[in-house]
Amino acid sequence: MIAEISALSAALCWAIGGLIAVSVVRRIGAVNYNHLRMLLVGGLLCILTWPLGGWKTLDTTMLPILLISGLIGIFIGDTALFSSMQRLGPRRSGVIFAANAPFTAVMGSLFYQEQLSSRQLVGGLLIITGVVVTILLNRPRADTHAMEKIQGSLSAGVLFGLLSAFGQAAGAIIAKPVMEAGADPIAASAVRMSAAAAAFSLMYMVRRQPILPPLLRRWDVLWPTLFSGMIGMGLGMSLLLFALAHGETGIVATLSSTAPVLILPLLWLGTRQRPAAAAWWGGIITVLGTGILLLN
Asked: Is 83 exposed, middle or buried (0-12, 13-18, 19+ CB in 10 A)?
């Protein structure tokens, strides 16, 4: 049960972090935002890991695996996610990102021979159905809030969303054996984010650009980036890694994909625009599926 609760908590963290991030992403771009977020959050997690003793749970054989997981799941996956969010907004990009659940379930079956029971399959299918229904029935109105409007290419946003889902799934699958071996989730997150931050910095250096451009040094950019990063990436990703260490990858990924449903009431509070009544049916279906998954 602790793995399932951790996965749901990760989804809530991602929903909150995504809402905080969307305005900054649209101001400075997905690559700049993700780079700044990795530098800030990765650095803080590295510092936080020392007094908590997390580094003692890692050995030299774990580091290459976590580095690869970070490059695929964060450097590629998260940059694609925020590129999708920049174009489609948090709700639409979130529902495409939910494709990481079936991606992860398939990979878990292929690489770890994880087989889901009939009850788990029913619950998982209900959750995915609920997430999809939520987005399909919650159509934007004429006075849609700026946070919800499509900016740029719709097809590019969808492709970036699918790439982010695949990157998240692959990164989680790669990290799973390390987490099962007893690695501390915060220390593992620190390594993964440091790998992504180093890759971003190298990319800026190759382009002969300053690692931290002047725009990224502004307080009105730094604070929301740090806040959203600590909630969505620092806490959310650590919870996901903890869930992977104690649960089946397919179940964990499915429960963590409920962020688009959890974002509905948050969007209502943030934009003062109530989601379409029919969209709540998607939420009900998702809750039903979650209940089935959580049954012993």
From this structure: buried
